[in-house]
């Protein structure tokens, strides 16, 4: 039986895939290497990243140990994708500052605009999780919140109220020009956040008390 996943003649079928490895841990002091559990990436309504671990039973099926599976989001920087597709998606949001939410923005952009994000469980990359960031934010600016507001204003649509309920300080942020991001949405005829929740990340669906 032909396995289309590794059929090089059909790689064009995966042109819009963003592929992630399992992120293993490298100790920043000793550089000891340790394996991580296989996980998806997700986020909450504050656009804060989180890991979503798969149940052990999932791996009792042998093929699941190598078969890529969908992930709602990605950790920052650890990904493989076609350069042409990255450009087609508008690359990263160049209006963002320093650090934060660029991974959530690219994840949403991929899912909503015709692509997908998958984890290849047989691929592992070690990452040094530093004790602190070696750079600082701009004076007087919470760059992580600033970037998250840009994502919310561009991609969350009617659900941006859930973001601002989670991050009320975001309502005071002057988030800059997002017109180029809006053009990407229009050019690629991207879907909305309701579609993303229903088809990709149902666990994100607002609870009744979140709607009050």
Strand content: 15-25%
Q: What is the domain total for the residues?
A: 1
- Output the CATH class name: Alpha Beta
Mean pLDDT across every amino acid position:
88
Structural class: alpha+beta
Report the major sheet.
4 strands, mixed
CATH homologous superfamily (4th level) name: Spore Coat Polysaccharide Biosynthesis Protein SpsA, Chain A
Structural summary, described in words:
One of its GO terms (molecular function) is Notch binding. It comes from Caenorhabditis japonica. It holds the Pfam family Glyco_transf_7C. This is Galactosyltransferase C-terminal domain-containing protein. The chain has 212 residues and is an alpha+beta fold. It has a single domain (15-128, 136-200), classed as Spore Coat Polysaccharide Biosynthesis Protein SpsA, Chain A. The protein has helices at 83-88, 102-112, 143-156, 160-166, 179-187, 193-199, 208-211; strands spanning 17-26, 33-34, 39-43, 49-53, 69-70, 116-128. The termini are far apart. The model is unreliable at 1-6 (pLDDT under 50).
